[in-house]
Amino acid sequence: MEERSVGMEVKDIKIRNMKTEDFNDNEYLEKYIAELRQSGMNVVTEKLDDVINWGRSNSVWPFTFATSCCGIEFMCVAAARNDFARFGWEVTRNSPRQADVIFVSGTIVYKMAPVLKRLYDQMAEPKYVIAIGSCSISGGPFIDSYHVVKGVDQIIPVDVYVPGCPPRPEAMLYGMMQLQRKIKLENFFKLPKKPTVTADGNTEGGNK
Amino acid sequence: MENLEKIILSLAPDAKIEENTQRFTATIAPEKLRKVAEGLKAKGFDYLMCLTGMDYKDSLGVIYHIAPSNDEANVIVLKTSTPDRENPNLPTVSDLWEIAYFYEREVYDFYGIIFTNHPDMRRLFLREDWKGFPFRKDYDANPALNPIPEKVPSVESFENVPTYSIDKDGKLVKKEYPLFSKDEYVVNFGPQHPSTHGVLHLRISLEGEIIKHIDPHFGYIHRGVEKMCESMTYPQMLYLTERLDYLCGTMNRHALCACIEKAAGIEVPARAQYVRTIIDELTRIASHLIGWACMCNDMGSITAFIYGMRDREKIMDIYEETAGGRLMVNYYVIGGLAADIHPNFQNRVKEFIPYMRKMIKEYHVLFTGNPIAYGRMKNIGILSKEKAVALGVTGPSGRASGWACDVRKIEPYAAYDKVNFEEVLHKEGGTFDRYMIRLEEIEQSLRIIEQLIDNIPEGDFKAKVPAIVKIPAGEYYQRVENARGDFSIYINSTGDKNPYRVKFRSPCLSLITALCPLCDKEKIADLIMISGSMDYVIPCVDR
Question: Would you give the end-to-end CA distance of chain B in angstroms?
Answer without folding.
Answer: 33
